[in-house]
Amino acid sequence: MRRIPIAAAAFGAVLFLSLAGTAVADDATDGGALVKKACSTCHATVTPSAPRQGPSLVGVFGRKACSVADFKYSPGFVASCKDVVWDEASLDRWLTNPQAMLPGAVMLYKQANPDKRRAIIAFLKTLQ
Questions:
Q1: Using N-to-C axis directions, what is the helix angle for 3-38 and 114-126, rounded to 10°?
Q2: What single-letter DSSP state applies at residue 41?
Q3: Omega before 103 within 30 of 0, i.e. cis
Q4: Could you tell me which residues come within 8 angstroms of residue 79 by beta carbon, excluding any fewer than 6 positions away?
Q5: Distance CA 34, CA 19 (A)
Q6: Each residue of 89-128: pLDDT tens digit?
Q7: Contact 124, 88 (CB under 8 A)
Q8: What is the pLDDT of residue 45?
Q9: Domains of the chain, each with CATH number or no CATH
Q10: How far is the C-alpha of 45 from the C-alpha of 55, rounded, in Å?
Q11: What span, in angstroms and rounded, lies between the C-alpha atoms of 83 and 87?
């Protein structure tokens, strides 16, 4: 009789992990739509691609800021980005207010909604 609660607990754990994985996938899917709508005019999300106003977002997660070799960053951005690596925390700050995080940044897009920022970041993680 003790097997039923254990089996139910195991099923619950599997269900929870499945739903958690779905939430991450949904975030990335939603983030992809947000990036396409708000970011793709200035940033490429595939390679190869023609140069745009902003650097490519392919491989951005985990990359050192100001490190895309074929992109010319503004002098103010270069002066303030030296110790930044794009991870969840830095991308969240960046998307909240680029100019507050890195003075001299030219990016105009800001996202006040934390759920949308999380979705965008989830999508950016997939661009490897």
A1: 90
A2: T
A3: no
A4: 104
A5: 22
A6: 999 999 999 999 998 888 999 999 999 999 999 999 999 8
A7: no
A8: 95
A9: 3-126 (1.10.760.10)
A10: 10
A11: 12
Buried b (16+ CB within 10 A) or exposed e, 19-45: eeeeeeeebbebbbebbeeebbeebbb
Which string of DSSP letters, residue by residue, matches 51-104?
--SS---TT-TTPBTT--TT----HHHHHH-TT-B-SHHHHHHHHH-HHHHSTT
Supply 63's token pair. Answer: 């990359």
CA distance 39 to 55: 11
Any bridge partners for residue 64, and if so which? 85
Query: Does the predicted model carry a pTM greater than 0.85?
Result: no
